Amino acid sequence: MSSLYLREDLESTGVGDSVTLRGPEAKHAVAVSRLRVGETTSIGNGRGLIATGPVVRSEPGELEIRVESVVVHPENRPGLVLVQALAKGDRDELAIQAATELGVDRIVPWGAERSISRWQGDKAVKGRARWQLIVREASKQSIRARVPEVAEVVDTRGLTAIVAGRTVLVLEPSAALALSELDPSALLAEELVLVVGPEGGISPAERERLEAAGAIEVRIGSGVLRTSTAGPAAIAALNVLLGRW
C-alpha cells in the first residue's frame, strides 16, 4: 500500500466496486502525488475501512479506483488516549503528529497551570481545528485506518473528571516507577490514558489532584524529555508492552 486518501462519507464498498475521490483529496492525488491509471492506491473513511485497488480514472479534481480488496480494521483495545498539555511554539503539534503516527487513538488538549499557550474563545475553536488537520494528515502519511479523535480543550478540573475510573499514567521524571516496570496485565483496560505536562512540568497541585483521582506517575528513562517527545516515546514503549510491536 503506497498511499492513502480519505473520503469520510464512504460507508461501505466491496471487491469489484468503483470508489471515486473528489475535491481537495482528489486534486492532491492527481496534481501533487501524480497518481496515474494503473497505479495502486487506497481510499479510507478514517473509521476503519480501507479499500485498495488500481486507479482507473485520473482527472483534475477526480480520481477513481476499482476495488480489489477491502479491510475493516477494528478499534484498538485498550484505546490509547494522549492528554497533551498546550505548549509554546509548535511543540504540542509535533507531539500529536508523532503520537498519531505511533498509534494513539484519541487526543485531549489540556490547558495546564504552567501552559504558556492558552486556548480561549475563538482560539480554542481554531486550535482544535488545527490539531484535527495535523492528526488527519499524519494518519494519511502513516496509512492509518482510523483517524484519532481530537477532543475539546480541558482545564485541570476537566482532566480530573476524565481520569476518574480509568487507567491513567502521568509522565513525571521524578517518579519512582519506570514505565518499563509496569505489569502488562495492569494495562488491559478499555482505555489507557497518558498525561503529558507542558514545558515547565505538571505543578505540585495538579500532581496531587491527579494522584487523588487514581492516576499513576511513571518515568521514561533517566533523563527529562521535552513535551514534544515525551508522549510519543511513552506510546512507543506502550506498544511494546501491549505486544502491538
From TrEMBL:
| First-level EC class | transferase
The catalytic activity, as recorded, is:
uridine(1498) in 16S rRNA + S-adenosyl-L-methionine = N(3)-methyluridine(1498) in 16S rRNA + S-adenosyl-L-homocysteine + H(+)
Alphabetical keyword list: Cytoplasm, Methyltransferase, rRNA processing, S-adenosyl-L-methionine, Transferase
The subcellular location is: Cytoplasm
- As recorded in UniProt, its EC number(s) are 2.1.1.193
Q: Which residues cross the membrane?
A: none
InterPro entries given in the database record = Alpha/beta_knot_MTases, PUA-like_sf, RsmE, RsmE_MTase_dom, tRNA_m1G_MTases_N
Gene3D superfamilies, from UniProt?
3.40.1280.10, Hypothetical PUA domain-like, domain 1
- Please report the stretch or stretches of sequence annotated as the Ribosomal RNA small subunit methyltransferase E methyltransferase domain: 79-238
A family per Pfam: Methyltrans_RNA
| PANTHER family noted in UniProt | 16S RRNA (URACIL(1498)-N(3))-METHYLTRANSFERASE, RIBOSOMAL RNA SMALL SUBUNIT METHYLTRANSFERASE E
Stated family: Belongs to the RNA methyltransferase RsmE family.
| Known role | Specifically methylates the N3 position of the uracil ring of uridine 1498 (m3U1498) in 16S rRNA. Acts on the fully assembled 30S ribosomal subunit.
Q: What is this protein called?
A: Ribosomal RNA small subunit methyltransferase E
Species assigned in the record:
Plantibacter elymi (nom. nud.)
